[in-house]
Write a structure and sequence with these properties.
The complex is a heterodimer of chains A (about 325) and B (about 325). Chain A has about 325 residues and is mainly alpha-helical. In chain A, about 70% of the residues lie in helices and about 0% in strands. Chain A has one domain: ABC transporter involved in vitamin B12 uptake, BtuC, CATH 1.10.3470. In chain A, strands 1-2 form a two-stranded antiparallel ribbon. In chain A, strand 1 and strand 2 (about 175) form a beta hairpin. In chain A, helix 2 (about 25-40) packs parallel to helix 14 and helix 6 (about 100-125) packs antiparallel against helix 12. Chain B is built from eleven helices and 14 strands. Chain B has a six-stranded parallel beta sheet with strand order 2-1-3-4-5-13, sandwiched between helices. In chain B, strand 3, helix 4 (about 100-110) and strand 4 form a beta-alpha-beta unit. Classes of the chains: A mainly alpha (about 325), B alpha/beta (about 325).
Amino acid sequence: MTDRTRVIPDRLQSPLERHLKSWESLLILVAVAVFVANSFASPYFLNAWNLSDATFNFTEKAMIAFAMALLIISGEIDLSVASIIALASTAMGAAVQFGVDTPGLVLIGLGVGLICGAFNGFLVTVMGLPSIVVTIGTMSLFRGISYIVLGDQAYRGYPSDFAFFGQGYVFWVISFEFVLFAILALIHAILLHKTNFGRAVYAIGNNPTGALFSGIRVARVKFILFLLTGLMSGIAAICLTSRLGSTRPSIAFGWELEIVTMVVLGGVSILGGSGSIVGVVIAAFVMGLVTFGLGLLNVPGIVMSIVIGALLISVIALPRLWQKWRG
Amino acid sequence: MKRRTFTSLVAGLSLGASLLGTSAMAQDNMRIALVVKALGIGFFEAAAEGAEEAATELGNVEIIYTGPTDTTAEGQIEVINSLIAQGVDAIAISANDPDALVPALKRAMQRGITVISWDSGVAEDGRQMHLNPSSNALIGNMIIKLAADHLPDGGEVAVLSASATATNQNIWIEEMNKVMGNYPGINVVSTVYGDDLADKSYREAQGLMQSHPDLDAIIAPTSVGIVAAAQAVADAGKAGEINVTGLGLPSEMAGAIESGASKSFAIWNPIDLGYSATMIAHALATEAATAEPGSEIPMGRMGSVTLDDTNASAMADPFVYDASNIDQFKSIF
């Protein structure tokens, strides 16, 4: 017997109040704070071209983070994404040596991403293996293939029009990558928040058994999510390869953890079942602005990692502490 | 217009922000960024020391020593982007990837930033010039000179190389053979291959001592081979009798110098390298020199370099390390 009582609210929270108290509002506050702090700390921050350059720090990672968010909400994870980039980029580089043109390269990049995603999805949904184990394995496998193919060599000689994806500008300072980032954000937001498929993703993350007995084809949804993550990794591979103009097997090394960090910072529960695309978009901006702002102050990279880590822990811990403190 | 007012307002306010520790406001200074493969590597810390030395000598130069946490091209691109944003005057970079950095560095040059590479180069269209620590000819000459300096009356030397197919070592030995005429009395009696494996190099060095009882010196132009050979000589009790020399790292060779198995050896000096890169970047940024094939660029106490057809150049002879300076360098790299 405890004397804890539960207050039954006599009215629902108003939509405005709910929005104000949401994770996303907290993140926006953080983003604004970072923006203002950067503007004060460095005279070079508020410059259209510089801000445009800064977006390249996160656009490619964010594209994958959108798909990763859906995957994590469904209760799975894919740690092989950075290795898919390496393999897709290696395949495109190899194709260049055979004279494949830009449309062909794009198809190859997307195709390799899809195949890798399908392979992960097959092992998880058909073989019934845990996704964290499978993708730790394929993380080594995919990048390992790149290392076998390339060794210490590099592929270069990409066609000049291929450079548009990573270096092109659509309008003034708005880069192609940034436009793609925005479009993909919108597509994922609609998919997750406005479709039956999105509803199924939440249901699976909250209660896979319940979802199965509600008639949701759990395995198929998960398989599609792995495909989607692979496809997004393929798109990111095209952008990054185009931006670098060359391929080495170490390309995008270590990105998987930055992408998962972005997703979790965006308010997606690592246990699955909750989260939003808006949160991930804001988290992408926060991470991009923080690293760029610290870069302008010539803060060493290791300190940046510490700041991002501290940011992640505090943004996640503060609301919990706040709730505890309020009882 | 409105935005510009806001920008200038912020620029004014940020004067106060300089209390936060940024020194970026010192606009009078020429800012030269020394970008390295990754922070926290002794070799590059030493190069930064050299860059600071050059800055002090030049006056009005601020060195921004920076680089990513891991040795990745993506990390260096983020660093380059932030340097472009700060409008630094020059970037001197030791590249993690000769090709991937080209688009970012091209953009830096388009915005009027002087870009040079040093140590580890960037492809030709991504930089104005490249500074090699040394050249094959200088290295080939240095390794035989190191042996000959301690053999005034001539003697027998043997070469312990890496693998028979190692490109670098073969070129250096070839260059060495070209200048053998300058060292009369020195005979190369044998060339063996330790494949850059410590145990194999050790056995090959033992074999050399057995088959050539009058051997005076072993030249190992590889950092693995030189350590193994010095160990074999010391273990055979022939330290002081047979001089092991060649190319090695001070941290690994300190013991051999102490035991007398090696009298001296050579490798590029990172302090000189950072110093020279800074001097060259300054000369190009102030337009005191131009980067084109055949032009000569001054670099302070290190003399000057002349650019070849690819706008590359070699700084100097490899730096010689012996008992007099090993203690200073063994903690650096």
